[in-house]
Every structure is written in C-alpha cells, then in structure tokens.
C-alpha cells in the first residue's frame, strides 16, 4: 500500500518544476501519465549528461514512475484525447507561460467543465497574475528575482550560483506537492477541485528567513557574506590542516561555550569575552579568526571528533565522492541503485520515509511514448486499430 494509491495525475508540464511535483506524487503511489509531443518529447530528455539510450541522466532520474504518452495537442483528435485524460485525472499539472493553456482551449474554466473535481497545479516564473506574469523564466532567473543570488558568494565579488541551478525548480515542485495535497484534502469536504498557483521566485523568497522583516523594520540590506551567517558567529566553513573544509554551527551561546571547551580555550566563552552573542557579532572577524586558526591546526577527522565529543554541530563539506562512501547515506537508502535503460543507475532515493505507506521507485525515466498504447487502451478505451490510425497520422 502507498499513501497516494488511487490518485491519478496528468502531467502536461515540461522540464522540471511542475513535473517534479508529479514525480514526488508518483513515488508515493499516484498513477502519473505524462503527455509529451510526438517526435521530440519533454526538453528535460536533453538536459544534463547524455547517455547511450538517447535520454539524459536527469531524465532517467527525475521522470521515474511516469507513463510516457505522446499526443499532438495541435490536432483536434489529440486535443480530444487530452480532454479525456483530464476527465480521468484527479490532478492536472502544467508549467507553461500564463495563457498557453488557454490558447489550447484548456484553461481553468474548461478543465472545471470537463472535471469539476480536478485540482489544477499551475507553475510559472512569476505566477498567473501581476505585471510580469507573461515573462519567461527558469530557476536561475528565480534565484535572481527572489534575492537569493544576490546573497550568494563572497563580499565584493560576482554573486555565484547558490549550489544547484535547479534549486527553484525542485523547491517549487515540493511546494506544488503541498498545494496539491491540501487541495485534495479540501476536495473531501467541498467535492470540488481548485487552482494551485505557484511562482518559481516565491518558493525561494519564502525560504530567506528574516530578510523581509529586517528590511521593513530597520532598512537593513543584507549583503554577501561568503560562508558566514548574518545573525550568529562562528557559523561558517573552515579549512583543516589536510585541506578539507568543515562546517561549524554555533547557533546560540551554549553552543559556543561547548566549542570553546572543544578548542581547550574555555575563557573565550566568558561574559566579558565572546560568551554573549552580541559580543561575538561585534567581533566577527576576530572570532572567526580564532576558530579558523584552531581548525587549520588539525586534520579534518580530529576537528570533527573534538566537536562531536563536545556536542558541537560540525560536518565535513562533502563532495559526491564522500557521499557515496558515507555509511549514513548507505544506511538510509538516500542513494538507491535502480535498473534502467543504460543498466544499473544510482539515483536519489524517496523522501520522506513513511513507516506504514512508504514510497518507492518502480522504474526510471521511460522512453518517449513508451506507454502510449497502454494508456490509450486501458484508460481511454481506444482499440488497437484506432491507435494505429492515430499513429500513422502523427497524432500520437
């Protein structure tokens, strides 16, 4: 049994943000039918590292558990098939520019007429309303517009990409899951679906802690701080004697007291020194320098051992090579190896872990149109002869 057994999802989206929501729903049991254009399919198939099967590693990992169906929206017969799939679905997902769905004759009003119980998730760069609604945008633009990219990097240097260029896509997909599940829960009471409207930039902005209230209250414009954190210190990355980096997080005074003991310098946490947070913030460079010198005097394993013995949160900055070797990752199944069209492939596992109705990966990204016959026969009731005719005409 899976948590979302019986939930039917129609994925009309492209690339990553909307489709990632469908991926997560599919991991927990929802049946996901992904509609792609004949011939080319979703551009995500060509985003990332190419493989011998013709699709990229990104596609193989992120299109897991989906049934690929090819349908030409421009053909009235294809549009009719899509409308029938909308009637079948509990959830419809799209992430085109606002107005594109309406241009195809599949706007929210039409979807409601076809299936008043359907939940429609609409993902776009700037949302379905506002002066910028019609502008295109990808995750990198969302990082810029949300304020995140401005904060990423070293002071007085070019802002950098905050880790992954696809961060906004993944976060928006996760917020999409939240929105869809809440809408399905509301449907149990109202009997009706609704529209879930998410902008890429909003999901990033929502995660920027006190950025907005600090500006409104004090006019404070946060600048790039490198690895440091604005409200606490030491809370950064430090280089070890064997040229690794460790993250140390002292989020409150008690934690700094523990770190002082780990460094065998308990006097640093005295009230007249750096014990109170305000004192540490006022002497940020000095405190960071003291911690940096201590870390630089020891190998990585020794720094981590002393911090952990003292109860100080600390961790090595992992490369993917470190991740593959780590026992915690292995124990949790955070990386799982699955059969694929290019042989065994390591991909991220399912998150979160549910004790009674866990999710699973049933297959990795499918071939283009791999499930067209199955879906048109099993769900839409078309005969083999009709499907053959549609295929000959380029409709599917």
TrEMBL record:
UniProt GO molecular function: CoA-transferase activity
Entry keywords, A to Z: Transferase
Cross-referenced Pfam families: CoA_transf_3
Entry protein name: CoA transferase
């Amino acid at each position: 049994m899976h948590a979302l057994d019986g939930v039917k999802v129609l994925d009309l989206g492209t690339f990553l943000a909307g489709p990632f929501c469908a991926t997560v729903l599919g991991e927990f049991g929802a049946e996901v039918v992904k509609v792609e254009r004949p011939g080319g399919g979703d551009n995500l198939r060509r985003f990332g590292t190419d493989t011998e099967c013709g699709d990229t590693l990104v596609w193989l990992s992120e299109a897991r558990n989906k049934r690929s169906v090819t349908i030409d929206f421009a053909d009235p017969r294809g549009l009719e098939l899509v409308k029938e799939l909308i009637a079948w679905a509990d959830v419809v997902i799209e992430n085109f520019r606002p107005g594109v769905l309406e241009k195809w004759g599949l706007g929210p009003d039409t979807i409601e007429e076809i299936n008043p119980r359907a939940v429609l998730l609409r993902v776009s760069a700037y949302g379905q309303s506002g002066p910028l609604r019609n502008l295109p945008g990808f995750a990198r633009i969302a990082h810029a517009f949300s304020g995140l990219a401005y904060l990423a990097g070293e002071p007085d240097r070019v802002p950098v990409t905050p880790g992954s260029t696809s961060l906004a896509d993944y976060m928006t997909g996760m917020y999409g899951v939240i929105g869809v599940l809440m809408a399905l829960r509301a449907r149990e009471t109202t009997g009706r679906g609704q529209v879930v409207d998410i902008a890429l930039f909003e999901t990033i902005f929502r995660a920027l802690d006190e950025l907005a209230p600090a500006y409104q209250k004090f006019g404070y414009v946060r600048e790039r701080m490198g690895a440091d954190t604005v409200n606490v210190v030491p809370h950064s990355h430090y280089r070890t004697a064997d040229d690794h980096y460790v993250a140390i997080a002292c989020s409150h005074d008690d934690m700094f007291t523990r770190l002082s003991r780990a460094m065998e310098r308990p006097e640093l946490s005295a009230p007249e020194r750096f014990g109170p947070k305000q004192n540490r913030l006022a002497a940020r460079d000095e405190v960071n320098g003291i911690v940096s010198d201590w870390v630089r005097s020891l190998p990585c394993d020794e720094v981590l051992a002393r911090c952990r013995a003292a109860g100080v949160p600390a961790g090595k900055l992992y490369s993917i090579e470190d991740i593959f070797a780590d026992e915690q990752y292995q124990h949790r199944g955070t990386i799982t190896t699955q059969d694929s069209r290019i042989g065994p492939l390591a991909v991220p596992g399912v998150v979160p872990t549910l004790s009674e109705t866990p999710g699973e990966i049933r297959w990795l990204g499918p071939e283009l149109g791999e499930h067209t016959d199955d879906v048109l026969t099993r769900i839409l009731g078309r005969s083999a002869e009709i499907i053959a005719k549609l295929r000959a005409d380029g409709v599917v």
